[in-house]
Design goal:
heterodimer, A: 379 residues, alpha/beta, four-stranded parallel beta sheet, disordered C terminus, B: alpha+beta, seven-stranded mixed beta sheet, four-stranded mixed beta sheet, 9 helices, 13 strands, 30% helix, 23% strand
Chain lengths: 379, 346
C-alpha cells in the first residue's frame, strides 16, 4: 500500500531503535505519554515496546473518545433509544460501551430498541429523510477529528429543514484534556520526569494544527511531538522527544508534516465554530470534569439538540473504586497491576475506561501485549 | 381451461405461505425449483429421506446453518457458501464428502428468481465438488420473521483407514501452513453490506477444499495433525482454538501471513484486523516438521493452494498464546475476537 508500507519498514525501524538507544542517556528515565488511543493501539499492534531500551517507556494516555465517554452519557443514550419514537444512529464502537448498570446499546438493540450502526453523519441524514415520522437522533462522539462532519450534518439538516433529526452531542476537545492531565495534583507531586513529553494526536492535529499545543508547552515545560500512527512515525517521534529532553528543550515539533500544518484545516475549523460553542465543562471517564472540554450546539441550532428536545438529564456516576484506570493513565501502574484486569474486567466485560474501547490502554494490552507478563518457553 | 399452466412464475413470482403449506404449491416449488437445480437419482425418488451406499472406512458428519447478509456477494451467494462450507467441514477431518442435505427457511415475499439463482448455484457447487444433495426440507415463515433466507446443510463423508486428524495431535515444533490469502471473504461481504458499500475487486474465496485436502493427505499422511478452515473469527480464532485444544502455543511471522493488498487496505480504512476476517476457501494445517515441505509443495501444485505458505510453528506454552513476530521487529499476540469486529470511529 502506497504511503503505508513505507512506514512499516523493518530496516528503518531497527535503525530508529538503534538511534533511540544510542541517544538516550542510560542514567535518565524517559517517560512519554501518547495521548491518542490510536497510538496506544499501534504501540501494541506492532510490538514497539520491544524496540525501545528499558529506560524509554511509553505511558498510555486517555485519548480515545469512546474510552473517555462517561457511563452516564451511555445511560442517557440507552434511555433515548428505548423511546418508541426514536431511531438512534451510532458509530459501531459505541455498541459495547457499558453504562452504569452494565447494560449497553448492543443489549438495548437486542431487546428491541431501534439503533442503527452508521459510518458517517450522512447516513443519519439519509435515515431521517427516509423516515420523516421518526425522531432520528445522531449520537455524535469524537475529538476535533469528527466534529467537522457533525457540523456539516447540522448545516445540511438546517438547509433541508429536517425536523425529525437531532443531535446527542458528545464531542470533546483535546488541548483542555492535555492541560488537565498536566495540571493534575499527581503530576505536580511526582516531579518533572514522570511524564517527560507527549506524542501529540495525529488526526486531531490535521484539523486544529500544532498551534494550540504551544501554550501547553510554554506553561508546563514538556515537549510535544505530533506524530502519525505508523510504526516509523512513532519511532521517529520518540527519537525527537529523546533529543528534546537531552537538549533541555520543550517545543512543539511536527513529525507528521505530511498531514499536519501549524494552522490546521481552516475550513474544518470554521464549520465547527459556525455550529458549536464550547461547553463550560464536560465529564471524561477516568479524568473527571474537565473545564471547556466539550462542544454544544449554538443557540441558532438549539432546536437540533436532542438533550433539550427529549428533556434528557445527566446523572453523575462515580467510577468503580476498585478500578485503577486513573493510575494507569498517569503511568503509575501497568494494566496488569489492576486487580480487576483480566478477571472482572476484560474486553467482553469492560469496567474501566482503559478497557472500554479497543484503543484503551488495558484493552490494547489485553489484546496484543499480555504475553509480556508470562514466561513463554520456546520449543 | 388453464390446468396445464405452470403456477410457479419464477421470473416474477415470490414465495408465499402456501409454498410451505405441504400442499400442491410446495410440491411445485420443490420439484420445479430445487429438484431441477440439484437433480440426482436420490431426489428423483421424492421420499422424505434418502438411502445411500456407505463407503469403506469411517463416516464423518457435520451440520451448519447459513445466515449470511447480504445473500449475494462478489464471488458467490448463500447457496454456494452453504455447499462449500459444509463440504469443507467434512473435508477438514481428511474425509471425502459425498452427500448433503439442505434445509431452507424462506421469508414470505422472497423472490422466486433469487431462490432459483441460489438453488442453481448450490447445484452447480455440489456437482463441481462431486457431491450430491440427496434430501432436504422447505419451510416458509411470515414476512419479518427471517432475513430473506436461511439455509442449513448437513454433510456426510468417508474417511480412509488410518487417518485421524485432531487438535490434540499437534506437537511443539509442528509447522503452521495456510493455503492462501486471508480475509478475502470477509472483505467481499463487507463491501456489499448496507451502509458500507465500497468499491473492491476482491471476490469471496468460497470454494470446496476436499480435493486440496486429498492432495495434502497423499503428501503428508499421518504427519498432518490438524486441519481447520478459518471461517468466522478468521485465522486468529482458529489458531486460538487449536492452541487451547492442543495445550500448545503458536509463534507466527507477520511478514509470512498472506493478505492481499486490497484486503489490507480495506482493513486499514475500517480499523479491522485481517486475522479476524472470515475465509470460506482457505485452510490452516498443523503439520509435522518432517513432512511440512512435501505438503507445502503439494499444496502449491493445486489451484486452491498455489499461494500456500508456512507462517510459523507450534511452541510449548502453558498460556496457549498465538504470538506474532511483527514486521518491524516487535512481538504481539493475536487474540480471539471480543464480540463482533466493529469499525473504529477515528
Amino acid at each position: 500500500m502506497k504511503y503505508v508500507e513505507e512506514f512499516r519498514d523493518r530496516t528503518i525501524a531497527q535503525g530508529l531503535a538503534r538511534a533511540i538507544a544510542d541517544q538516550s542517556d542510560p542514567r535518565e528515565a524517559y517517560q512519554f505519554m501518547e495521548f491518542c488511543g490510536g497510538h496506544t493501539h499501534a504501540i501494541f499492534r506492532y510490538g514497539l515496546e520491544d524496540l525501545l531500551p528499558a529506560n524509554v517507556r511509553m505511558i498510555h494516555g486517555p485519548g480515545c473518545p469512546v474510552c473517555v465517554l462517561p457511563a452516564s452519557r451511555i445511560d442517557m443514550a440507552i434511555e433515548l433509544a428505548n423511546r418508541p419514537e426514536v431511531t438512534l444512529c451510532i458509530y459501531g464502537d459505541l455498541m459495547r460501551v457499558p453504562g452504569s448498570q452494565g447494560q449497553s446499546l448492543l443489549r438495548a438493540k437486542s431487546l428491541g430498541a431501534d439503533i442503527r450502526m452508521v459510518y458517517s453523519t450522512l447516513d443519519a441524514i439519509r435515515i431521517a429523510e427516509q423516515a420523516p415520522n421518526r425522531e432520528v437522533v445522531f449520537f455524535a462522539i469524537g475529538f476535533e477529528t469528527t466534529a467537522p462532519a457533525t457540523a456539516v450534518m447540522i448545516r445540511i439538516a438546517a438547509r433541508k429543514r429536517l425536523k425529525g433529526l437531532s443531535l446527542f452531542c458528545n464531542h470533546v476537545l483535546t488541548p483542555p484534556a492535555m492541560h488537565s492531565i498536566l495540571d493534575s495534583v499527581d503530576m505536580r507531586d511526582v516531579g518533572p520526569h514522570e511524564i517527560g513529553g507527549f506524542i501529540g494526536p495525529a488526526h486531531v492535529s490535521t484539523i486544529i494544527g500544532t498551534q494550540p499545543y504551544e501554550l501547553l508547552v510554554e506553561e508546563f515545560g514538556r515537549p510535544i511531538v505530533i506524530a502519525g500512527f505508523e510504526p516509523l512515525d512513532m519511532m521517529q517521534a520518540i527519537l525527537m522527544l529523546v533529543r528534546q529532553v537531552n537538549d533541555g528543550r520543550h517545543e512543539v515539533e511536527n513529525q507528521y508534516s505530511r498531514a499536519v500544518t501549524r494552522a490546521g484545516n481552516r475550513r474544518a475549523r470554521e464549520e465547527v465554530s459556525d455550529i458549536f460553542d464550547v461547553r463550560d465543562q464536560f465529564e471524561w471517564r477516568g479524568l473527571g470534569v474537565v473545564p471547556n472540554s466539550g462542544l454544544m450546539l449554538k443557540k441558532a441550532y438549539a432546536h437540533f439538540d436532542a438533550e433539550a428536545r427529549f428533556a434528557m438529564h445527566e446523572v453523575r456516576i462515580a467510577d468503580n473504586p476498585a478500578c485503577d484506570c486513573g493510575a494507569i493513565l498517569r503511568g503509575a501502574k501497568k494494566p496488569v497491576e489492576c486487580e480487576l484486569f483480566g478477571d472482572a474486567c476484560t474486553p467482553r466485560t469492560p469496567i474501566g475506561s482503559c478497557m472500554v474501547s479497543s484503543e484503551g490502554a488495558c484493552a490494547a494490552y489485553w489484546r496484543y501485549g499480555r504475553h509480556r507478563d508470562y514466561q513463554v518457553r520456546a520449543s | 381451461m388453464r390446468v396445464n399452466k405452470p403456477t410457479l412464475d419464477i421470473e416474477n413470482g415470490c414465495v408465499d405461505l402456501s409454498h410451505g403449506s405441504g400442499g400442491r404449491d410446495m410440491a411445485q416449488l420443490i420439484s420445479g425449483l430445487f429438484h431441477r437445480a440439484f437433480g440426482n437419482e436420490w431426489l428423483a425418488r421424492c421420499n422424505d429421506q434418502a438411502a445411500f451406499d456407505v463407503g469403506a472406512g469411517r463416516m464423518v458428519m457435520t451440520t451448519d446453518a447459513y445466515v449470511v447478509s447480504p445473500l449475494f456477494f462478489p464471488g458467490g451467494n448463500i447457496g454456494s457458501l452453504a455447499v462449500h462450507g459444509t463440504i469443507n467441514d467434512v473435508a477438514m477431518a481428511g474425509a471425502r464428502p459425498q452427500y448433503l442435505s439442505a434445509s431452507f427457511i424462506i421469508e414470505e415475499g422472497f423472490r422466486l428468481l433469487d431462490l432459483k439463482s441460489i438453488a442453481d448455484s448450490m447445484g452447480e457447487a455440489a456437482r463441481g465438488a462431486g457431491v450430491y444433495i440427496i434430501t432436504g426440507d422447505t419451510k416458509v415463515v411470515e414476512r419479518g420473521k427471517a432475513d430473506g433466507l436461511f439455509i442449513s446443510t448437513t454433510g456426510i463423508g468417508f474417511l480412509a483407514d488410518g487417518l485421524d486428524l485432531s487438535a490434540e495431535k499437534a506437537r511443539a515444533g509442528d509447522r503452521v501452513l495456510v493455503s492462501g490469502s486471508l480475509g478475502d471473504h470477509g472483505v467481499a461481504i463487507m463491501s456489499r453490506r448496507q451502509n458500507l458499500a465500497f468499491q473492491t475487486q476482491i471476490m469471496s474465496d468460497s470454494a470446496a477444499l476436499h480435493d486440496l485436502v486429498a492432495v495434502m493427505v497423499r503428501a503428508g499422511g499421518s504427519g498432518i495433525r490438524v486441519m481447520r478452515d478459518p471461517t468466522r473469527g478468521g485465522l486468529a480464532a482458529t489458531l486460538n482454538e487449536i492452541a487451547h485444544q492442543s495445550r500448545l502455543g503458536f509463534r507466527l511471522q507477520e511478514n509470512a501471513i498472506p493478505v492481499k493488498l486490497e484486503v489490507a487496505a480495506a482493513c486499514e480504512l475500517l480499523g479491522l484486523d485481517p486475522l479476524h476476517l472470515a475465509n470460506e476457501g482457505k485452510l490452516v494445517a498443523i503439520v509435522a516438521p518432517d513432512v511440512a515441505e512435501a505438503v507445502l509443495v503439494a499444496m502449491k501444485a493445486h489451484r486452491l493452494g498455489y499461494d500456500a505458505v508456512d507462517i510459523g510453528e507450534a511452541i510449548a506454552d502453558d498460556h496457549h498464546f498465538v504470538q506474532i513476530a511483527t514486521r518491524v521487529g516487535g512481538a504481539r499476540i493475536a487474540d480471539w475476537l471480543s464480540g463482533e469486529q466493529l469499525p473504529r470511529i477515528c
